[in-house]
Specification:
- The chain is of the alpha/beta class and about 350 residues long.
- Strand 4, helix 4 and strand 5 form a beta-alpha-beta unit.
- A 9-stranded mixed β-sheet has the order 10-9-8-7-11-6-12-14-13. It has a 5-stranded mixed β-sheet with strand order 2-1-3-4-5, sandwiched between helices.
- It is elongated, with a radius of gyration of 23 Å.
- The chain binds ligand AOF and zinc ion.
- Zinc ion (ZN) binds next to loops.
- Ligand AOF binds next to helix 2.
Amino acid sequence: MQDLEYMRLAISLARATIGQTSPNPSVGAVLIKDGRLIGSGAHLKAGTPHAEVHAIQAAGENARDGILYVTLEPCSHFGKTPPCADLIIKSGIKKVFVATLDPNPLVAGNGIKKLKEAGIEVHVGLGEDEAKKLNHSFFHFIKTNTPFVTIKAAVSLDGKTAAKTGDSKWITSPESRLDVHQLRHEHDAILVGINTVLNDDPLLTTRRPQGGKNPIRIVLDTHLKTPIHSQLVQDQSAKTIIFTSKDVDSKKVEELTGQGVEIISFHTTNIPIKEMLKVLGEKKIMSLLVEGGSEIHASFIEEGAFQQVILYIAPKIIGGRSAIPFVGGEGPELVEYSKKLEFVSFEKVGPDLKLIAKPLVE
Ligand code: AOF
Ligand code: ZN
């Protein structure tokens, strides 16, 4: 196998952990000597050993003169675990391939510097694009202290999320819906508006055949209308947080709190999206999936408070001038004032199209 193939193996190990390492990144490592695989591993959970530790421990004394492939710059700081760079130096590894630098200000090039100063041959950039993409949430979070926001919607070819009656079951295929459950597994939190709670009474949990992790459920509910009997309140399989505004009924707050729901009130008449994202950041939520409805999407888009849009487009035309599109709000007077994005990828998921776009940096 070639260097890039070993790095891809490390990237696959990292990818398998997306959704389980937060607020830490997903990292994979592969250790090779004389063309043999002698160690490998991934960082499995925050607070537990880093990827390199698993790989080096598996190899033991044999690590000496080995070549390490790691998807993120080895750390140089004492966090919950000691520095990986020190362990690599101690183990006698002679060469290290690093896919991408760690943007964590505590590391940020110091890991590489340490390795080089110890006489280790270091190459940075092998498989960099893939390694960056798989940790886009961590990269965004570590720089901004707010979650990476993905707006997700399932639409018909004419951009509707429901027929004129409000009926929305099911626009996209079972294959797309399964893909959405993968997204839920990968995200720390999922957010909807109060209208979605009232109309759909969603559960917002992860349902994949192989099981999965539930995201924290978040509701933006200005007037605290979330029904006590809604699934988000009654179902205990995931935590629910409701953001609300001032002057809400204190008895309702008590009732919801009694069911284990966390209520966060802003001293304003509406919920300021960017302030809300800061609160989520303080809670170490590094990725947020926004699942509608159209007014919520409009708020995030108007505020420029999103990093990615994922659209599942079904080959169906619903039509109807009062059928809801996936973005509501007022909208601008002129196309000139529209939000500009660029397409990142497109793929077929069952009969549907999955489109990813991100805001254009001008
Ligand atoms: C690595 N390998 O597998 C991971 C790294 O609190 P700690 O000690 O777990 O440190 C967390 C930080 O370490 C995290 O913010 C990121 O900068 C880096 N993660 N580094 O060398 C790994 N998961
Ligand atoms: Zn480390």
